[in-house]
Amino acid sequence: MARLNLAIISLVFLGTVLGSRGQYEYDDDNVVAISENSTLYGLSEDFYRHACPQVYSIVRAGVEAAIKIQQRNAASLLRLFFHDCFVQGCDASLLLDDAPFFIGEKTAAANNQSARGFEFIDVIKASVEEACPLTVSCADILAIVARDAVVLSGGPNWEVALGRRDSLTASRAASDHFIPDPTYDLPQLLSSFQAMGLGAEDLVSLVGAHTMGFSRCTSFEQRIYNQSGTHHPDLNIEPGFLKQLHDRCPPHGDPNTLQPLDWESPASFDNGYYKNLVSQSAVLHSDGTLYSEAIAGFAGIRELVEKFAEDEQAFFASFARSIVRMGNLRPLIGDKGEVRKNCRRVNPKF
Question: Distances in Å between the alpha carbon of 262 and those of 179, 210, 211?
Fold first, then answer.
């Protein structure tokens, strides 16, 4: 606890100091071109140009500090954006604690004891509030945080369209229904993404976020011991890798033991994830199915996996386009929702 408190104090201090220096200078040469016109969705890259130009510096400092504490935090912060956007759109509903009039999303199956990094968002928000009170939404902070987590881990850069507002409620039931499960097969994954207005290429590129981070044994133990109730492992797992997973997650072992999703470079945002898929060394069933099931009837998906495994820049460009598209879906804009002062609860009504 003392270490966490020290980390939070350091984040606030670092964010405030850097925030006073003006907008963070990004390397424009590395920004991936985005074809979508975000203004069509009511969002704009220049939304805070006058109201809070230092927001980029404050957020970047917070993400840098979080990753310095633990590299795994980059994947956790990126994951928050995905799990938020898949429920009610990108409206920061995931960040809300339970309230008398709703059960929040943090205890949903996909998030409970799994979603991490809320304390870093709290600190970043506090620093932003100090610089620009009631100006920048928690939803927009999550969007910037996701981009910075990728860039600081070696991945692509992209312009973040801003102007979202925060939701007034959350839904655990919607979270349980809409967030893809690690046991999903390919048709279920496609259906899940299509329900969000996202296509097959969006699916293949966005799950590439699994090139960073870890999974608990409980998320894939069925795949390595009792696939589809057969009492046998998934036959699509490369035997040598299956042994690694058995050693890492033995029967009756600790279900919370962590396994890198990209076992060669879990701290880097690269195309190693797709190389693992091609070599049948995916950890999660939902990941492995992108290559194994694509043999029968989904050749285009299999070809995308192979393309991204061979061409990292093609993956980067596709990921940037898809995450912008995801972030543009169903935003709260104008007078809808609110700009929360505290990301964990709606603003009090007087």
Answer: 21, 7, 5
